[in-house]
Structure formats: C-alpha cells, structure tokens
C-alpha cells in the first residue's frame, strides 16, 4: 500500500528488482512510512544547519506555505496562481487581531487560519469548475481582488505601508513563559505549529480522502465514473490547502512583526509555484527542500549582486529543464531505482 | 412481462448540429444479458454515456428501477447502481491494480474521511482483492496498472465497475483490441457476471454476441432500428440490409 500513498516514482515491481536493491527499497519504504516523523525530526535540528535563525524560520514558514500549496498542485493536480491570498489573509487575520483588537497569540493565529479558510472557500467555490490555464487565471484574478480589498482597508491593514506593530514579546503557553524575541525560542514556537501541520498533512494524505485526491489527479473522468463528486472533492482540497497556507501566513506575521502588503502580491503566488517545482511537486518533503533552496539562493545572491532575481530565474529554469521532478523528486527516483 | 430495470424514453443527444442519438425509446429487462449492436458511429457509446450519466440527454427521459434519473450528476449514477466500463480503457495508470479497485470500492463508503489511515480500512481492501479474483486478476494486486497487458487492463476496469455493486453493468466493447484467447476469456467472464446482475454490452462483432445474449438492440445512425431476440434480429430484413449485408 505504501507505494501508492507516495509519489508515483519509478515502479519497483517485485518481479524484476535485483536482490541487492530489495534491502535498500525496504529501508526507504520504512522511511517513507514514517515520513512525517522524519520531516519533523529534520526540522527540529534544522536551525543548527543554517547560518542564522531568521533564515531558518523563513524556510520553515515558506516550507509550510509550499506544503499547503502542494496539496492542490502536487496531490490534486490543480495549479493555482492565487495562493498569496491565503498566506496574506492568514497574516493579516492574525496581525489585525493582535494590533487592533489586542487578541492573544494563540487565538490570533487561529483567527488568521479561519480567515484564510473562509477566503479559500469563497475563491474555491468560484474557481473550482474551471480547469487548467483558466483555473490559474481565475485564482490569480480573485487573489488580486483580495489584494485590493486589504489594500483599501487602510484603517485596519495600514494599506500600502503594510501592517506594523504585530509585536509579540513574551508568550505564555501552557504556563510556560517564553521570550519570543529570542530567535531560537521563536524558531521552536513556530516549529511546534509546523510540526502539528506536517503530522495532520500526512494523515490527510494517507486517508481515504487522500486516495480520492490521487485518483482525481490520475484520471478525473474515471474518478467521477467511480462515484466521486469531483468538484466537491477539489473544493475540499482547495479549502484545506488555503488553511495550511493561512497558518503559514499567521506565523509569518508574528515572526516579522509586520505584514508587508507584498504578502498578498501575485509575485508571492508565483514564488510558491517556483518552490514547489524546485523541491518536487507531489512529494512530501519537496516543499521544504524547495523553500530552502529558493530562500538560500536568494539570501546568497542578494549579497553578491543587485540583479539577483535574474540569476535566481536562471537557476530556476535550469532546474526545471534538467530536473523536472524537482530536487527531492529526482533524489527519490534515484534511491528507488531498481 | 418481466420487470424493466432501465427505461429510456425518447432519448435524443445532439452535439452542436449533429444528432448522435435520435428519439431512442427502449427498455432493459432485469437480469437479462442484452447486447447493443450497430455499425461504427451508430451512437452506441453515446447511448451508454447518456444512460451512465456522463452527459445529459438533449431531450428525453430515463427511469432506473422506476425512479426518474434524468439530470442526476454522473457520480450519483455509480452510487445508485449503474456502472460502466469504457470503450477506451479508462483506469488509474500510475496506481497499483489493487489500489485502482480499492479506490473504486472506497467511493461507495468513505469519500470524505480525512482521518483514518486507508490501510486500516481492511474491509475495503478485502473487497478489492475479491473483485480482482473475480475477474481473474487474483494475485496481480501489487502490479502497476500501466504495466499490465491490454486484456488485463480491460478486466481491471470491469473489476472497478463492479466495485459499486451495480445492479446494471454497462460494458462498452469490452473485447476491443483483444486477442482471440483474451476475447474468449472475456466472453466467459461476461456470462458469469450476467448470472447475477443485469448486463448490457456494446459489441460491433455481431457473431460474438449472438450466441450468449438473450436480447439484442440494433442502433443505426442514432436511431433504434430493431430489438428482439437474436433470432428476431437475424430474421429482420432491415437489419440484414444495413448491417449484415456489409459482410460479417
Ligand atoms: N463528444 C462528442 N462530440 C461530438 N460528436 C460526438 C461526440 N461523441 C460522439 N460523437 C459523434 O456521434 C456519433 C456516434 O458516436 P458513438 O456514439 O461513439 O458511436 P459508436 O459507439 O456506435 O461507434 C459519431 O459520429 C461521433 O463522431
Ligand atoms: Mg463506441
């Protein structure tokens, strides 16, 4: 069963796999079965592998953003160009709750997620019956509407200046007093949310609903003939995807202590597409790899040149041309070779 | 008179200006093996698509077990008990044979279960194994569907169609592209399946079906040309003219 819950990597039929490869496959199958745990373990030690903690936190948050996006893109086969709307509304939801209403940390995060979920439900309802390039365009157009709505609500959102003052200095979680200004503490607070999200995500993929998404990605027409309400299933995936991205946005607001209006910009929608393709669409760990590569390249290139976007674009194109499965997808294919 | 499981009344399907199905009224008897024959382009697949809900008829009505089903959504047809295998093999190529059938079985039970691991729902897996065995694919579960032989894929698709425990099973040219041995096996399977449910089958090789089916329906240019027992059809002058006359 496990091979069907992961990406369709190379088939490793039992009949023609050499004996020495079998042990190797068993080993990787075992890892694949515990992929949520392995991912969480990796993210736990991750800040020690990074040059500075803020970068680690950024990667963690964008990894979650790409993870949520991947539910739709990699696992359901729908390319949305409007996911900035969920990252942004999650960020503004949490940010405005804290700045304007003095809501405490945990409920504020929850408000961010709920706002993103509601916006995803509305956008999804309007977009889900279109396909392919039309779906991408409709989600893009709707996310632009969300952008302008937040842009216009200057009193709450700060308009083009962004929302400032999302300051969390200390946190009391379950009786613990935590100094949120300490970067390591901040990393592990955000990590706790991401870890729960990763675990929920893996449950979701392994569930019957996850199987229905795979079936729709594989062959929508067949899935419908089997008795799946394809539109409703896609809508559910869209909303769930929006919720994960909204959580990423809410965490980003408290991490940066501001919400730049660019969070809602379509470039932010484009970034998550690039991260997914870099990492490997439809792979569990790929979104984190993609987010890490994207942000690490960006971090290095901005130090070296003002034309960093040009070089980042070139790197992206090289990867997409030569590694169409993305970095993680290519690696998976390699370890699963017969 | 035996009970009709499906009744079509004046079904018409137009694609733009082209009428693929013209005012077809026909009934299917329960637990009877019926074959629909007719030359290529006669509208057989179109008729199947309409009565399996793939697209709505332009006009006309249909009733399944007495209930008006015109205008229902396609996914409701499977849940109601009408399943179809397609003329062009239609499966999930990158999933294992077992998962192909399991996901089809699952569609009847837990579509929006986001929580339980799917391998814990052992009832669905057992059912999928049983269906694979039923169509002669026992033991082939772990193979990727796309790696299977054409005949095996056709059988797999029938197992998927059976997953919804259909009372009406529609098979669109199940032997298309098959070798003679595969065709023989498929015909045996169809007869076995027909023992327990209503089966309607499209086949343009008339000789194949004459021997096994109880009723025949002949479509021509989208119209119902004739219906009856194989003997009636053999004796029908019009059928001979448009169909048999073309050489078998
Ligand atoms: N989706 C469609 N759009 C336009 N024309 C179609 C469509 N499906 C079938 N047709 C036309 O309807 C006619 C009947 O097709 P079909 O039902 O597939 O015939 P058969 O299965 O008897 O060979 C053909 O002329 C075909 O070109
Ligand atoms: Mg046909």
UniProtKB/TrEMBL annotation, chain B:
Ranges of residues in domain ABC transporter: 6-246
The organism's place on the tree of life at top rank: Bacteria
Entry keyword set: ATP-binding, Nucleotide-binding, Transport
Pfam families with a match to the protein in the record: ABC_tran (PF00005), BCA_ABC_TP_C (PF12399)
InterPro entries the UniProt entry points to: AAA+_ATPase, ABC_AA/LPS_Transport, ABC_transporter-like_ATP-bd, ABC_transporter-like_CS, BCA_ABC_TP_C, P-loop_NTPase
MF (Gene Ontology): ATP binding; ATP hydrolysis activity
GO cellular component entries: plasma membrane
Name assigned to this protein: ABC transporter ATP-binding protein
Species assigned in the record: Oceanibaculum pacificum
